[in-house]
What we know:
Layout: H1 2-10, H2 13-16, H3 25-30, H4 32-96, E1 111-115, H5 132-141, E2 147-149, H6 151-156, E3 174-176, H7 179-194, H8 203-206, H9 216-232, E4 240-243, E5 246-251, E6 256-260, H10 262-271, E7 282-283, E8 287-288, H11 307-314
Antiparallel strand pairs: 1-6, 2-3, 4-5, 7-8
Helix pairs in contact: 7-9
Amino acid sequence: xxNSSRRKDENNDNEHGLPFSPIDxxxxxSSYSTTSSLxxxxxxxxxxxxxxxxxxxxxxxxxxxxxGTKDVVYIGLIAAIVILFASAEDxxxxxxxxxxxxxxxxxxxxxxxAKFHAGLNDTTRFRGDPRxxxxxxxxxxxxxxxxxVDDDELTKMGRDASTAVKIxxxxxxxxxxxxxxxxxxxxxxxxxGYTLDLYPTYQPMLSSQMGExxxxxxxxxxxxxxxxxxxRADVTVLTSDWIDxxxxxxxxxxxxHECVNWDxxxxxxxxxxxxxxxxxxxxxxxGRFSNPMAPTCSSKSIQNLTFADVRNAIGPVxxxxxxxxxx
Length: 327
């Protein structure tokens, strides 16, 4: 009878909110003489039950802790992999985008695929004989050539502030230029050098000074571009095709390359541009620099240029001895 009442009371554990079922004192007193051994047994069983409950709860706790530990390990591994790949990607981008040397324009560097249009018979606004549209295209391309460099950027580049050319237009900074614009300038000088008679304002700079066949400025530009091309080392593979109208393998120049997005770089340079005509550059010994750049190849100077004028400036060409496209 005692056991049955105990089981009944145990069913009310949640009602009393106690870990043990409360004992019926009257029933316990009336049966004390005959059930003392049972009480001891019951107490023992209650302790066993409590221990079982404790072990069950403890087991569940450890199982939960084991599960949580695994989760932590998995999350840690995933995080490590993500960090590893992110670090590798950063090193890759740095190695591809000038991470070995500092440049404030690195933030503008975005790699993309771009297909060249470089076939021998292709046309672009930068190809062809001198004409107003060609000069306008080059003027636009070089319109962001001069940039302002601040003190912090100059220091990070390891340049000497005591000799750097200061911009005295009220905004401070130092005169700078992204090297890509110097490369483009050199290309333009080489192009102008072929028809120098049409550009009298450039003749003092691009003419032979000491009887050399290749004028010094042109020679400088050619070797500067050689170094730049070798420095970047475009490893895009060109393949050859058989074509109907030529007996030799014909290189396919119009393929995809990995390129820096030009619009981004140009926009960055434009945002850091300064007007050199208002820069008031002053040499410490020679004074104010009044002729910052040679006049641009204004389209006005060749507005009435004809094809005959160009050919006369270039001179006769013996096409029979000229190298063909296969050379």
